[in-house]
Amino acid sequence: MHAINSFWAFCLNQFEQELPPQQFNTWIRPLRLEGEGEPENGLRLLAPNGFILKWTKERYLTRIEELALTFFSSPVSISLLVAENSIRPPLLEKHIVSDTASTIKSTIVDVITTEKNEKMSVEKLAFYEKTRLILNFTFENLIVGRANELARAAAIQVARNPGDSTYNPLFIYGSTGLGKTHLMHAIGNYILQYSPQTIVRYVHAEDYYSDVVRAYQKKSFDSFKKYYRSLDVLLLDDVQFLNGKNRTQEELFFVFNTLIESHKQIVISCDTYPKDISGLDDRLITRFDWGLTVQIEPPETEMRVAILKKKAEIDKITLSDDVAFYIAKHLRSNVRELEGALKKVIAFASFHMRKIDLDLAKESLKDLIGAVNRQITIENIQRTVAEYFKIKVSDLFSSKRSRSIVRPRQVAMWLAKNLTSKSYPSIGESFGGRDHTTVLHAVRTIESLRTEDNNLNHDLHVLQQILKG
Ligand SMILES: Nc1ncnc2c1ncn2[C@@H]1O[C@H](COP(=O)(O)OP(=O)(O)OP(=O)(O)O)[C@@H](O)[C@H]1O
């Protein structure tokens, strides 16, 4: 691999660890390296459009420069440019000319127009950001197989005819990491591609809940309601997170009714079938069943291989069949895990300046695959953490709130999330019947603390080594 390619693989890996996935996927992942070459010629990064260019320059360029200094031990010139053949929605020109209807419409059109001239106000950028759509999550990038063909077909119908009552709401369910979020973003991206004036908003249920709380605190319920009720397409992800949040559910109930009555499209994702969602108002559950409910199942081996090849192709990496089969054979439960493995292989190859072959894949994944085969259990994690921090296992289940207990408990939850395939609710259950939001909070706390706390990082490292054996 060329030095610059290796550096960019290193950079991607680094950003992925430092940024929340949403930010990484939106701003860093779409950047492409121009050409290949030696560091003396500098690093040229291509952004697919003006917004990404501006945003990345403002927020991440300094960090890329720092990483270059670490990697090459000398400064490297870095230029960020808009890709010349950046993809534009086919109907865009028509919309730009003909669409003068409302301020919101023209704002979107303005934002898109600026891809050419790069003159962009922060408000417009923020407005665009409001859709929260990950540009790479498209139908083109989604591999189809038996596991998701029905869900994908339904999603395409929705994207072509948003608001059609046969598919409204579209309810997509399946366990974690199987592509529900990807499919929702694909719907949003497709609609905006062909009809950029549509007001599309992707929102994770946790963020919807935060919006409700903020509206309460700021006494801005009117604008909250107005905003959500003005959407043409609402994509609500992981609705199971609204478990027990009654006030938020009530708000959603009204939004739901308003949108459906005015033939606006709603797409919802969840980890279970509507009737199995716990802690959710029956009125909502019944409504979730009004349109079409589709499931995504874990992909079979051939589909896992195809997904790996597609991901490699997006990253401009050649992946031979034997390597793809090796990874697909060993990691079966979800696609996110597969992607993680592929990234590990790519990073390993770039660090060691080696080509990706079966030996390298085996070497770079021996910990991961060993760990999966050894089946790390939550009980095992609890025992190991208790021993390590010299507390009792029962303290991890208890409601004690002293710091000496709370932190190990959070660490144990973080390890459970990272080393097992258990969902947040099931981890909560294993820690004395706690709510999944407690687990989510613990995982986020540890994620954020570890970036600045070296001792904590060390503890996490050692514990993972012990658990992986
Ligand atoms: N069929 C597929 N083809 C290509 N990539 C896929 C496919 N299914 C899933 N992925 C990828 O797997 C990763 C995880 O998918 P995603 O986040 O959509 O899962 P999810 O079902 O929403 O998970 P969660 O319930 O944890 O939110 C994403 O990077 C997505 O692009």
TrEMBL record:
Region (Domain IV, binds dsDNA): 350-469
Annotated ranges, domain AAA+ ATPase: 166-297
Localization per Swiss-Prot or TrEMBL: Cytoplasm
SMART domains referenced in this protein's UniProt entry, alphabetically: AAA, Bac_DnaA_C
Keywords associated with the record: ATP-binding, Cytoplasm, DNA replication, DNA-binding, Lipid-binding, Nucleotide-binding
Region named Domain I, interacts with DnaA modulators: 1-100
Domain Chromosomal replication initiator DnaA C-terminal: start-end pairs: 377-446
Keyword Nucleotide-binding: yes
Keyword Lipid biosynthesis: no
Annotated residues for binding of ATP: G177, G179, K180, T181
Free-text comment on this protein's domains from its UniProt entry: Domain I is involved in oligomerization and binding regulators, domain II is flexibile and of varying length in different bacteria, domain III forms the AAA+ region, while domain IV binds dsDNA.
Family according to the record: Belongs to the DnaA family.
General function of this protein: Plays an essential role in the initiation and regulation of chromosomal replication. ATP-DnaA binds to the origin of replication (oriC) to initiate formation of the DNA replication initiation complex once per cell cycle. Binds the DnaA box (a 9 base pair repeat at the origin) and separates the double-stranded (ds)DNA. Forms a right-handed helical filament on oriC DNA; dsDNA binds to the exterior of the filament while single-stranded (ss)DNA is stabiized in the filament's interior.
Oligomer status and interactors: Oligomerizes as a right-handed, spiral filament on DNA at oriC.
Name used for this protein in its record: Chromosomal replication initiator protein DnaA
Higher taxonomy: Bacteria, Pseudomonadati, Pseudomonadota, Betaproteobacteria, Rhodocyclales
